[in-house]
Amino acid sequence: MKRVLLLLPSNSYRVAAFVAACADLDAHVITGVDATQASAQFGDRRVMQFNFSNPALGAQEISDFAKDNPLDAIVPAEEDAVLLAAHAAQTLGLTHNSVDAVVISRDKFKLRKSLTSAGLPQPAFRLLVEAKNLKNFDLLEFPCVVKPTSLSASRGVIRVDDELQMKEALTRISDILAGLAADTPHILVEEYLPGEEVAVDGLMDKGELHVLALFDKPDPLTGPYFPETIYITPSRKSAVERTLITQTVASAAASLGLFHGPIHAELRISNGQVYLLEIAARSIGGRCGSSLRFADGYSLERLILGHAVGEEGLVYQREPCAVGVMMVPVLEAGILRSIQGLDVARGVAGVESVDITIPLGQRVTPLPEGHHYLGFIFARSSRPETAVTSLRQAYESLNILIDPLNSGSPK
Fold this sequence. Notes:
Layout (H helix, E strand, L loop, with lengths): L2 E5 L7 H9 L4 E6 L13 E3 L5 H14 L4 E4 L2 H14 L6 H7 L2 H10 L7 E4 L15 E5 L9 E3 L2 H18 L6 E5 L4 E10 L2 E9 L13 E4 L5 H18 L4 E10 L2 E8 L19 H9 L13 E7 L5 E7 L1 H5 L4 E6 L6 E2 L10 E7 L2 H13 L2 E5 L8
Parallel strand pairs: 1-2, 1-4, 2-3
Antiparallel strand pairs: 5-8, 6-7, 6-8, 9-10, 9-12, 11-14, 12-13, 14-18, 15-17, 15-19, 16-18
Helix pairs in contact: 1-8, 2-3
């Protein structure tokens, strides 16, 4: 029986989904976590603690563990685990993405440079090393987008339309990075590309891309901030656009060296051209992956694990119906006091579930400083447009009460 190490950060939304997938897998799964207190979430499954924050050290810990417990595959469940997985797989000689490829995918400036060298269309971009000093800096024309090079989930991403907004945005981003004690507090300035966004979830199989889902994002993402809201699949883009999107993702993955395992890409279509915004060596984040179901009733997590251990006969075809997920946004900072209308939202035709993931009484922060959603709404329908309608109706049924922090609420 093959043995797989599943690297699952303790703050993951996907613990339950991966645990369920492990139970259906004909392989021995060891779960690697970054915190011992997370062990209780995994029941009787063997759980080991490794250092996620120092991937080189964590890889040595995994290598030491593997001396008496040989491993056939290592699977990162979240962004926080992809670099550790690459280091460990490289140390053990397992099939995986190279460390260099993963490092580039996690740094927006390195990604831009690499894709430019590969000849892929890119927005114009500049790196700003010192945010407080704009003197002699060759700024792009407005509007443009400023973003940290190292953060994900749209955190710190701001569109600016003039010099005053630029200075304000740089101050906000610098404050975010200072609060994180970031190792590389650099900021990327990019040309703003008007147009629609899409996302691709896929599996690389020794260099070959299998597209698992192409998601449309029906809400306009024009700024000043860029919260993810609705993802819907199948895409309603034309056959020509879908082909171009797939070719762009495949070319980007090949140029970077993302060779094997799950990938997730974000793209924007502007003036008939497809631009890759980001690509990651993991599947779609949060609970969004639970919207996807495949042949034989496989979940996304089950498909990823089966692929990792080389299971024969895997079918990458998604079920034929339309599915959608809405990430419930945080619209203001404060203390989450109540969410009313949940029963009504859950009763909307086509809605499968409404999951609130932030406990009442907890402080919430909107983008660009925040990076958590209040929860997720899932819908399933025969057509994409009706799934979108169901998601919007469910969201409109919610009455979300947040006490502003300046109203005397406890911090």
